[in-house]
Write a structure and sequence with these properties.
Length: 382
């Protein structure tokens, strides 16, 4: 039997590289790290997560593996158009009797620019299908042709890794591990080619949804899963009332203050890019230490943006001031933030005129508001 040396993993990396080393001899009669089958050595990769070990299937050769952190990975929208560094959309075009993809369209409503994304949730890769050609993107030899009818995810030439950056993405073809770029060569002009090892200027792709209009409705908040956090007290300037007589006085004191609220509707899995939606949804707020849904928001909304409002308000306090006494009134309030997951229905009208409706379960509302408004009084003789 043989034993493999354990390989330490670091928490700091999102993409961990794991290498198998050659086995060492051991005198143990059993080993859960190796398996003998005839004369062939078969290694198993063991990963410890949360106190549990999980064995990954046997490996016939010694080489590198990648542990992919999918916890922060977002999924591209289903129907998209890609724009290159020349500010032109990538469109389907037959060149030399082949289904090429060329950065040459100026109109997102052009039916040849629409592509459908097929994500693989297990590993984060995607396959991309040209709606015009009705074929999946494929590496051949380094050009990207939209001519594959393979419905599986086994052909690495049809698989792409999406690298998300703030204003653009990179698309790495898994067939040759190179990034796709706009390339002019071999009598082709500005066509898509998996040619570079890094995300160069020509490999920066902007993604736009091929959607003319969007409506989001049927929002159902999961209040039992709401999370209140970042609670902090706020204080306002104190008010005083002095009674220098021998009689009891009642006086109404009015506090003027400003209250700030913030609200954001977003999604934790699906990206929504560059499309303003007509949103109908309630607004969760914190009230008396719990979360409840208040008035409804019904307006145009850029998905994922924060709406912050500041309102001038007044609060009145009826102070009873004893004779020869000064009363000081202090107002305090709690400010807190809240996250509430929700499901919703999304109805899109595509640039082709097609209407598609989705039931989504990845919504997340984030809000901030004030609550627990209280007055505190102190008295002192004069």
């Amino acid at each position: 039997m043989h034993a493999f040396e354990p390989v330490p993993l670091t928490d700091g990396d999102n993409n961990l590289s794991i290498r198998f080393f050659r086995p060492q001899q051991t005198t143990s009669s059993e080993s859960d790290m190796t398996k003998e089958k005839g004369t062939t050595e078969e290694a198993y990769l063991h990963l410890g997560t949360g106190g549990h070990e999980k064995a990954v299937d046997q490996v016939k050769s010694l080489h590198d593996f990648s542990a992919i952190d999918l916890s922060k990975q977002l999924v591209l929208p289903k129907y998209v158009a890609f724009k290159g560094d020349n500010d032109m959309y990538l469109r389907a075009r037959i060149i030399q009797k082949r289904n090429y993809l060329e950065f040459s369209s100026s109109d997102i409503a052009d039916s040849t620019v629409v592509n459908t994304i097929f994500p693989n949730y297990a590993n984060g890769n995607v396959r991309i299908k040209s709606n015009h050609f009705n074929g999946f993107w494929r590496l051949s030899p380094n050009w990207i042709w939209a001519d594959s009818a393979d419905s599986s995810s086994r052909d690495r030439d049809t698989l792409f890794r999406v690298v998300m950056l703030p204003d653009y993405i990179g698309l790495q073809n898994l067939g040759n591990s190179r990034y796709c770029k706009r390339l002019t060569a071999d009598r082709k002009t500005s066509c898509l080619n998996a040619a570079v090892d890094t995300i160069t200027l020509e490999a920066r792709l902007r993604v736009e949804e091929a959607v003319l209009s969007r409506e989001i409705y049927g929002v159902e908040f999961k209040l039992s899963e709401a999370r209140i956090y970042d609670e902090k007290p706020l204080t306002y300037p104190s008010m005083t009332s002095t009674n220098d007589t021998n009689e009891l006085h009642a006086k109404t004191l009015t506090l003027k203050y400003e209250e700030t609220q913030a609200k954001t509707w977003s999604s934790t899995v699906s990206l929504k890019i560059g499309v303003t939606a007509k949103l109908r949804a309630g607004i969760p707020v914190i009230a008396e230490g719990k979360v409840e849904v208040s008035t409804e928001f019904n307006s145009e909304y850029e998905w994922g943006s924060s709406i912050q409002t500041t309102a001038s308000k007044e609060a009145s306090y009826q102070a009873v001031v004893p004779p020869m006494t000064k009363v000081t009134i202090r107002a305090a309030v709690t400010q807190g933030s809240v996250d509430v997951p929700f499901s919703y229905t999304q109805r899109d009208i595509l640039t082709t005129g097609e209407v598609v409706t989705y039931k989504m379960d990845d919504g997340l509302f984030t809000g901030m508001n004030n609550y627990n408004f209280q007055f505190e009084t102190t008295q002192e003789p004069i």
